[in-house]
Predict the 3D structure of the following.
Amino acid sequence: MTTIELTRRQKQFVASVILAGGLSGLHLLRKTLRHALKEQFHICSSASVLEGSSRKRRAPKVAVDATFAKRLYKILKICVPGPFSPEAGVIYVQTACLVARTFLTDFSSRIEGGVGRCVTAADLSLTCC
């Protein structure tokens, strides 16, 4: 392998390009972080308690708006790569369990309500259920 010898001026130029690129990258990173901190501060300040006051500020109502939908889409795109991936399968199973739990809760509530009616009617023959 042959090595290329750079002159002192060329070395200085390469070093200055690398330094300028690093500084530019740091500037962009700082700008992005500053924007994120402002957004977080805005979110926290709108939901926090006013300092020095006994009254609480009302928290804004949570709404599903375009910003929420965009953020959720970005997160889901990362977390669930496709509809037939293992991650999607876990979501399908959790959804099925949630629906089944809802139906079981409704069913047990109906049974408890019927038993309660029989007890309050003092009809222990269970014909009122």
In short: The chain has two domains: 9-50, 81-129. The chain is about 70% helix and 0% strand. Residues 8-47 form the longest helix (40 residues). The radius of gyration is 31 Å.
